Prior knowledge:
The structure holds 2 protein chains of 2 kinds.
Chain A: E1 18-23, H1 49-61, E2 65-73, H2 83-96, E3 101-108, H3 115-123, E4 127-131, H4 136-139, H5 152-164, E5 169-175, H6 177-180, H7 183-192, E6 197-202, H8 219-235, E7 241-242, H9 243-253, E8 275-278, E9 283-286, E10 295-296, E11 300-301, E12 305-306, H10 312-316, H11 319-338, H12 342-345, H13 350-357, H14 366-386
Helix pairs in contact in A: 1-2, 7-8, 8-14, 9-14
Chain B: H1 2-22, H2 27-31, H3 39-55, H4 57-65, H5 71-80, H6 85-91
Helix pairs in contact in B: 3-4
Amino acid sequence: xxxxxxxxxxxxxxxxxxxxxxxxxxxxxxxxxxxxxxxxxxxxxxxxxxxxxxxxxxxxxxxxxxxxxxxxxxxxxxxxxxxxxxxxxxxxxxxxxxxxxxxxxxxxxxxxxxxxxxxxxxxxxxxxxxxxxxxxxxxxxxxxxxxxxxxxxxxxxxxxxxxxxxxxxxxxxxxxxxxxxxxxxxxxxxxxxxxxxxxxxxxxxxxxxxxxxxxxxxxxxxxxxxxxxxxxxxxxxxxxxxxxxxxxxxxxxxxxxxxxxxxxxxxxxxxxxxxxxxxxxxxxxxxxxxxxxxxxxxxxxxxxxxxxxxxxxxxxxxxxxxxxxxxxxxxxxxxxxxxxxxxxxxxxxxxxxxxxxxxxxxxxxxxxxxxxxxxxxxxxxxxxxxxxxxxxxxxxxxxx
Amino acid sequence: xxxxxxxxxxxxxxxxxxxxxxxxxxxxxxxxxxxxxxxxxxxxxxxxxxxxxxxxxxxxxxxxxxxxxxxxxxxxxxxxxxxxxxxxxxxxxxxxxxxxxxx
Lengths: 400, 103
């Protein structure tokens, strides 16, 4: 519980611009993954195309949009609405001639991808992420349709369509307890499927997903999983880019620290305004996008206002925003004091802190250990070897 | 006898603590003195070594002469993608989000 969270005006660090706008065109999803954090996936409500355009208009008018903006269509299956829906929005935004370069992205379950979608992706240079967990035996255990059948075959059909049409895409795989035991098979699947960029999301405790198959697994299994990924990646001469390793390499290099003392460091999820997530009805939240559909004893929900009705300044001056922002900032300060990975991270993921530890003011989570610390340690050891730096074998965290 | 031994252990421990304080090292740390450096120290060492490579390409060339893959060149592509805050800023969001510009 965020006992110390106060609604005194927030005075911590804040971004001047929104970099990532996550829009929920509809909460509806055509499949029923058992680890999904969204609770309202049967609702067929939708954001009107003109409302999506208006949201960007309002952000531009409020002066919080810089020269680049990523818009991610997600939080429900975006492809359950037709390509014409998005075309109308993209054309509408283009016609506004806002002084901003907008990059659209879809995170999709892949089951509905066809040539018509590929036309849209290519026409508008859309960034596509497909959720696929690995081979059918692993994927189908959790990613099922509404009648309980696995969706792997359908997803692969979609992936093959993207490949036939030369639409670049990346994959995001949720890592469950089963995947942890079969890292070679998981990597082999991506390699053999011609998928060149993969991000691994360790199954998390968030929102509607109140238990994680990985929670009971030993952290050493997570370490073994990533170590195996690193070995497989080397063996195939880096034919597959792994997001967690690329991220760790970037952070190890340290360029993110330029002009910022490490204690003041914040990341996209801990720095207010960098990410805004807007639900189909205009409800808006900041920080972790997963908060859009979550509820809590401390805060009720995490909706800060309605971007279609309220002024952005009112939203960010509200007592609720202040409470959440102060608690998240307090959590970051504690991370800075207690975590030796802080300079690589900037305070973890608020949603994970809240759902795992019950408080934004808390520090380390399973997400930190598995997605930040372990990949960092693996990459750090690799770079040390390459740079000829000798380090005793009992590196922190190495003994699993 | 057990009480005497216990007392002896306490005195011995106190003696070690005092010696430790005198030489500026706490006993608990002294007992782990051969353990690995912490992550921040390792990061500093790596970054410093990388700077050396950047400022002295000859170091890298030397390696290449031996037929090894150049360290900086090998990692250069990954590093090049992470040259600014914006790119990096996305990475910890890579929970489910972020890095959309790169991936």
